[in-house]
Amino acid sequence: MSKEINIVSFDVPYPSNYGGVIDVYNKLVWLNKLGVKIHLHCFKYGRSSSSKLNDLCEKVYYYERKTGLFSHLSFLPFTVKSRISNSLANNLLSNDFPILFEVLNTCFLLKDNRFTNRLKIYRHSNIEHIYYNALSKSETNILKKIYLKIEAFKLKRFEAILNYSNLILAVNEKDSLYFKSKYPQVKSIYLPSFHPHHELTILQGKGQYILFHGNLSVSENYEAAVWLITNVFSKISFDCVIAGLNPPQFLIDLISKFKNIRLKINPSEEELSLLILHAHIHVLYTSQETGLKLKLLNVLFNGRFIICNSKLLSGTDISSTISLKVSEDANSFIENINYLMSQFYSDEMIEERSNQILTFNNKSNVKKLIEAVFINSNF
What is the pTM of this model? Predict the structure, then answer.
C-alpha cells in the first residue's frame, strides 16, 4: 500500500546548511529512498524555491511568512503567528495523509477542529522556550534580547498545543523524557536528527589546526566562539580556525587581534567538509543542552579528536573516550588540547568512533519513523 505524508517545514530545507533544515532535508532524502511519497509545505523567508526538492517530493508548496508588525502584536509567538496560512490549511485538507509539523513554529493547526481525525506528528528540535531564554541571555543587542525574552514567554504558553498531537519525535533522549512527563497522553519517541553522513570518513594521522564551526549569526554559537577565543584559543600557541555563516562584526574584530586564530566566513559545503576532515582537534562548546547539535554529528562522522563540554552531549548516549574528551572549564580544554595535539589518530580510534555513531544511522532511524507513522499508528 502506498505511503504518503505531509511535511510542514518552517523554512525551505535546501540548501541544507544550518541545523534545523539539515534534519528536514535529510529526512526527505531517506523517506524518498524508502518509497514514501512526500507532500512538502515550506514557509519562505529569504530562501528561494528549490528544484532539488522536486526530485524528492510528489509536490512542493511554498508560503510566504507574514513578518510585519501585526505578527509581533499577538498573544501567539511571532515565530508561530507569522506562519499562519489559510492556503496551508486548505492544501492539507485536500488529502487525508499524516501531517508532520517540523518544530513548534509550524504547529498552529494542531488545535484546528478540521484536523481532529488526522494523524498529527510534532518533530521537536529544541524545547523552544528554554532555547529562546538561553539565546536572550547571550544576546548583546538590547532590542533582540527583549524580543527573545518575550518570545520565550509566549512559546512556553503555546507549547500546550502539543496536547493535540498524536506523536512527538524528539531529537534527544532527555527531551523525550520531558515530553513524556509533561504530555503523558501523547506518545513520544526518541528519533535522532537526520544528517548527510553515510559512513565514517575520518583520516588517520595528524592535522595542523584546531577547528570550531557553527552558524555564527546565532547568539548561542557566537557566544561559544567568544568564550573559546577569550578563555582557550588566545591562551595557546596552536593554529585555530573558526568557521561559519554570517559572523557579527564584533566577532570578526575580536578574532583579528590574535595571530593564531583565523576566521573562515560562509564556507561552502565542500570547504567546510575539508576543514572538518583535515582538522586535528574539533572544539565544541554550548551553554544550553536542549536539542541535538548537528555540528556534533559533523565531527563524529568526519573529524579526528573532539573536545566538548557535557551539555553538548546531553540527551545522547555518547561519553568520553580516548579520542573524545569532555571538558567543563577553560583549563581542562587547554590541558586536553595540549595533550591531543601530539597524538596520532589511529585505526583503534576509528573503530571506537564507529561504535559511537550507531544511534545516528539514517536508514535505521527512517525505518523507525515509518513504523511509528504508518504501521503502529493506532492513535
Answer: 0.89
